[in-house]
Amino acid sequence: MAMGKRGKSVKLDSSREAKSMALVYHPIHAANSLADLRVEGRDAAMENEEWMVRDTQAYDELSKLYHHAVDLQDALVALYAEWDAVGPKLRKWEDAQLGISANILFPLEWAMDDGEDRRRISAQSDLRSAQELLQPNQPFLTMDETFTLLPIQMDPASKSLSSPTRTLDPDLTALNALHRAILALPNQIPPPPTNVNPKRSAQVQKMRDQGNASLRTGKSSPPSAAQAQEAIKLYTYGIEMATGRPGWEPSALVKEEAGVLFANRAQAYMAARMWPEGAADAETSVELKRAGNGKAWWRRGRCLCEMGRWEEAGRWVRGGLEVEGNEQDLSGLAKEIAGHLDKSGI
After folding, report:
1. What is the pTM (predicted TM-score) of this model?
2. CA separation for the pair 30, 26 (Å, rounded)
3. Confidence class of residue 20 from pLDDT cuts 50, 70 and 90?
4. Cα separations (Å) of 340 from 279, 305, 309, 316, 333?
């Protein structure tokens, strides 16, 4: 709506009215937008100034760190220089300390030891050097000069000892009493020690018998895996007992017992189809007892065959035949190996 010249209202077109209003308000919106942009520009400038201040502070901190690192480097260089100056003095001091220990302290300790005469002689010479260093131009007393030989007499009849020196009376009295006690024994010669412990021998034989019983089954059926494992355990106990004998017992007895037990355990390993272990035990048995041990020769050969090592088995069996002669089982195994090698064309 609009007013005419005489105050009458005039109806305007709606589209034209909208366009007129837009033209009127457009400068206002543009001014507001410009003001907003100015505010945003001012805020951005302030924020940029803040970031510049922060960058300046960070740069200052980095500069301080850099100067501190330079100072530390200078301090390290100074320390290295001081070490170069002090190091040789410290090394000389260490060498002097080692020299004192080697030339004075150690010989003094050796001189106090009443053991080997060779050390005592060396200690005497070093002790003389030490005394010359500590007290020059002073007389040195040797060990011979400080030793006093005390007289001791023995009665030809009673064999008792005596001395005019009273300091030896307690020791000689105890020694004479021990001598009289030995003479009073019914048998003056003690019996020789037993060379072989019979209890250990009985235990070794028991382990061997129990292991054999574990493998013993009917003629038609081989031993089971459980029986083989039990036999292996018992034979192992016997081997530990046999090889654990004291050193003064005859070594031939140890070899005899262990040789048989290793051969038996090889058989138990074969029953359990443990071919490498059986071959190793059989070889050990042969090393302990080469002659008269045909079973061990045969068992290692059979284990090698079961592992497919036919050529090695042939060489082993031929070596066994050279020692055992024409042993029946070894001869049969040699023929079997030869036949297999012929078929394989080896």
Report:
1. 0.46
2. 6
3. low
4. 20, 10, 11, 15, 11
With left for phi above 0 and alpha for psi between -120 and 50, is residue 137 left, alpha or beta? Answer: left
| Rounded (10°) angle between helices 198-215 and 251-271 | 20
The whole-angstrom separation of Cα 212 and Cα 206 is 10
Query: Residue 25 corresponds to which tokens in the numbers above?
Result: 């308000």
Q: Are strands 2-3 and 153-154 parallel, antiparallel or unpaired?
A: unpaired
- For residue 113, the model assigns a pLDDT of 47
- Higher-pLDDT residue of 267, 84: 267
Rounded CA-CA distance 17/268 in Å is 119
pLDDT digits (tens, 9 = 90+) for 121-141: 555 565 556 555 555 555 545
In the chain, % of residues over pLDDT 70 = 66
What pLDDT sits at residue 32?
66
The pLDDT of residue 10: 47
